[in-house]
Write a structure and sequence with these properties.
Layout (H helix, E strand, L loop, with lengths): L5 E6 L11 H11 L5 E6 L11 E4 L4 H12 L3 H7 L4 E4 L1 H6 L2 E2 L6 E2 L6 E4 L6 E9 L8 E7 L2 E4 L7 E5 L9 E2 L1 E3 L2 E4 L5 H4 L1 H12 L9 H15 L1
Parallel strand pairs: 1-2, 1-3, 3-4, 4-14
Antiparallel strand pairs: 5-6, 7-10, 8-9, 8-11, 11-12, 13-14
Helix pairs in contact: 1-6
Bound molecules: glutamine (GLN).
Length: about 240
C-alpha cells in the first residue's frame, strides 16, 4: 500500500479533451479508491508547468490544431520527458499518442512530436476512421480483448523501439498498412482507443495502476464494468 496519495496528471484537457478521454483519469482514481488507496486527479492547464513527480500522466485526444499546440507547449516542459524517462507511466490516446512520437502530419504542414515514443504519424487519409475497435493485446500481460472507439484521420507507423499495443480484431487501428493498433515502450501505453478506454478495459487500467503503486493490486469484481465490456465487444462483433 503506497504511503502517499497517488497523483494522476491530466495534461491540457482544454486541448486534449475532445473525445471524453478525461474519463480515464476518473477510472484510475476510482479504481484506487475502491482499493482503499488515496488518489487525486491533477488537471494541468496550459499556463502551468508539468510536475515531474506525478504517478501517472494522461494525454487525451484532440483535433489537429490543438494537438500541434499541445506538442509545442510540452516541448517547453523538460520535466515531462524527465518523468517519462524515469519510468513514470503514461497513457497517450490518439492525438496524445501522435504527439508523443517523432512527427505528425506531412513534412511541410506537420509538426514535430516529442520524440518520446518511436512512432510517426501522417495525416493523409481522405476520410476519418470512425467506429468500434477491438484488439488482441501483444505480449503476455493480458489475454483479454481490448475494446475502444476510434475517430482519427492520422495513420501511425511504429519504429523498432516500440511495439503495438495489439493486433486488430475489428476496426482499423493505426492504419499504416499493418493490422496493428497503438504503441508501447517501457511504461508508455499509447492507443487510438477512446471510450474512455480504461472504462471499458479494467485490465489496462490496472496495468497502469500496478506500475504507479509499485505493488500487486487486489482484484476488483465490478459487475457493471463487465457488462459494459460485454456490450461493447458484442457491438463490435456485429
Ligand atoms: N486529430 C487527430 C487525427 O484526426 C487525432 C484525433 C483524436 O485525437 N481522436 O488523427
Amino acid at each position: 500500500m503506497p504511503d502517499s496519495e497517488i497523483t494522476v496528471a491530466l495534461i491540457y484537457p482544454s486541448l486534449l479533451g475532445t473525445y471524453g478521454d478525461r474519463g480515464n483519469a476518473q477510472v484510475l482514481q476510482r479504481r484506487l479508491e475502491w482499493r482503499g488507496i488515496a488518489a487525486r486527479v491533477l488537471e494541468i492547464g496550459l499556463d502551468q508547468d508539468i510536475p515531474e513527480q506525478c504517478d501517472i500522466y494522461l494525454l487525451g485526444g484532440g483535433e489537429d490544431g490543438p494537438g500541434r499546440t499541445a506538442a509545442a507547449l510540452l516541448a517547453a516542459q523538460p520535466s515531462f520527458p524527465r518523468a517519462v524517462n524515469a519510468g513514470r507511466p503514461v497513457l497517450a490516446v490518439c492525438a496524445g499518442m501522435q504527439l508523443m512520437g517523432h512527427h505528425v502530419g506531412e513534412l511541410e504542414g506537420g509538426y514535430k512530436g516529442l520524440g518520446l515514443l518511436d512512432v510517426t504519424t501522417t495525416i493523409t487519409a481522405p476520410t476519418r476512421t470512425i467506429g468500434e475497435l477491438t484488439i488482441r493485446p501483444t505480449g503476455d500481460w493480458s489475454t483479454e480483448l481490448i475494446t475502444g472507439f476510434e475517430n482519427h484521420r492520422g495513420s501511425t507507423s511504429i519504429g523498432p523501439d516500440a511495439q503495438p499495443l495489439g493486433t486488430v480484431v475489428h476496426g482499423v487501428g493505426n492504419g499504416a498498412g499493418e493490422p496493428v493498433e497503438g504503441a508501447c515502450a517501457g511504461r508508455i501505453i499509447a492507443t487510438y482507443m477512446h471510450g474512455p478506454v480504461l472504462a471499458r478495459n479494467p485490465a489496462l487500467a490496472d496495468r497502469l495502476l500496478g506500475w504507479a503503486v509499485g505493488a500487486p493490486l487486489a482484484p476488483l469484481e465490478m459487475a457493471n464494468v463487465d457488462a459494459l465490456r460485454r456490450e461493447r465487444l458484442l457491438k463490435a462483433s456485429r
